Structure to design on (354 residues):
């Protein structure tokens, strides 16, 4: 049977690439260390598959059709389409059709209705953390896109439930594979709105505190605070999928630092699973 | 509220070749999209607050990035400066 061998989270943001060389040295060193620590832990966990949870930043979907949740079930997905991600070393990333289809089927049998894609473009939200973590070889990547970009967005509680469902899917998959979860995005940031650039450090720190508390308190807090937070903060939904898969327990902060130059409150975390 | 065609233009401008063409001749590219006159005017005027009411915030940022505008200037315009 498959096994859940780790759950992790990391921020992403275009400026973690475009402004990387101009970041203040101390912040760059901490970001490097945090990404590196995640990479080390993932290497130690030796996953065959990473279910990576991220938004689609208008790379695959447009107003014509916006799935709330989309699972990438293809054998292969494309690397990032953004021109400034050209140096990312993978133009194609292997998927895991068998596991992804099992995940999708488990979802449908349990009252969740994901969209499916047999070929996705994995944009910077997926690829910056993989890149910065410096993994020598990439496990197979099963993308799970959660809409946190174009309202209406899924309920906070539903994202947590998606995590529980993902764990169920992993534990009921008949093949003997090791699966990790990597949630990307958040913490607070604001993009393309008048507050752009604002980082809400108190909100981030309260979220971090609540991730280590009973889940109900975190979910209530986010349902109340996210509607008025910077729009990019909505990506915490991805962390909730990881949190749900970990049973709402075992959260460990690796590092948190607000980085004004990349416009993001950057968080890095792992869950003991 | 979403202006479909302005959003479509901004989405399409993620392609570097189209973005280059747009930077060289905005009118020529905009003619391919059935944009309302006030929207077309707002694009020509870099009217970020007007456009922000009609498109997704991420798409709007991508659009201004495609035009070559720096984030600092984009933020200033978003705030009505």
């Amino acid at each position: 049977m498959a096994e859940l061998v780790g759950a992790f989270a990391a921020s992403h943001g275009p400026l973690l690439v475009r402004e990387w060389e101009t970041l203040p040295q101390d912040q760059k060193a901490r970001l490097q260390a945090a990404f590196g620590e995640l990479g080390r832990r993932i290497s130690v966990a030796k996953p065959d598959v990473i279910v990576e949870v991220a938004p689609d930043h208008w790379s695959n979907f447009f107003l014509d059709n916006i799935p709330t949740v989309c699972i990438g079930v293809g054998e292969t997905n494309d690397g990032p389409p953004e021109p400034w991600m050209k140096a990312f070393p993978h133009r194609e990333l292997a998927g895991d059709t068998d596991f992804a289809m099992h995940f999708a089927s488990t979802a449908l049998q349990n009252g969740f209705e994901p969209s499916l894609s047999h070929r996705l473009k994995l944009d910077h939200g997926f690829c910056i953390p993989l890149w910065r973590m410096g993994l020598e070889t990439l496990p197979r990547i099963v993308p799970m896109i959660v809409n946190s970009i174009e309202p209406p967005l899924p309920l906070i509680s539903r994202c947590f439930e998606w995590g529980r469902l993902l764990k169920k899917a992993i534990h009921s998959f008949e093949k003997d594979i090791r699966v990790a979860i990597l949630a990307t995005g958040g913490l607070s940031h604001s993009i393309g709105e008048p507050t752009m650039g604002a980082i809400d450090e108190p909100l981030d720190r309260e979220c971090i505190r609540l991730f280590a508390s009973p889940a109900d308190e975190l979910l209530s807090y986010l349902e109340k605070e996210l509607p008025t937070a910077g729009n990019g903060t909505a990506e915490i939904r991805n962390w909730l999928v990881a949190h749900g898969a970990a049973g709402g327990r075992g959260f460990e902060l690796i590092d948190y630092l607000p980085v004004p130059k990349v416009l993001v409150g950057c968080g890095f975390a792992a869950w003991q699973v | 509220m979403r202006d479909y065609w302005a959003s479509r233009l901004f989405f399409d401008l993620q392609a570097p070749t189209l973005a280059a063409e747009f930077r060289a001749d905005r009118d020529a590219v905009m003619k391919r999209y059935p944009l309302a006159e006030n929207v077309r005017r707002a694009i020509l005027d870099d009217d970020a607050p007007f456009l922000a009411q009609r498109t997704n915030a991420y798409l709007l940022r991508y659009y201004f990035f495609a035009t070559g505008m720096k984030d600092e200037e984009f933020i200033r315009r978003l705030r009505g400066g």
DSSP finds eight helices and ten strands in chain A. The domain at 3-271 of chain A is CATH 3.40.830.10 (Protocatechuate 4,5-dioxygenase; Chain B). Chain A has a mean pLDDT of 98. Chain A touches chain B through 18 residues (CB under 8 Å).
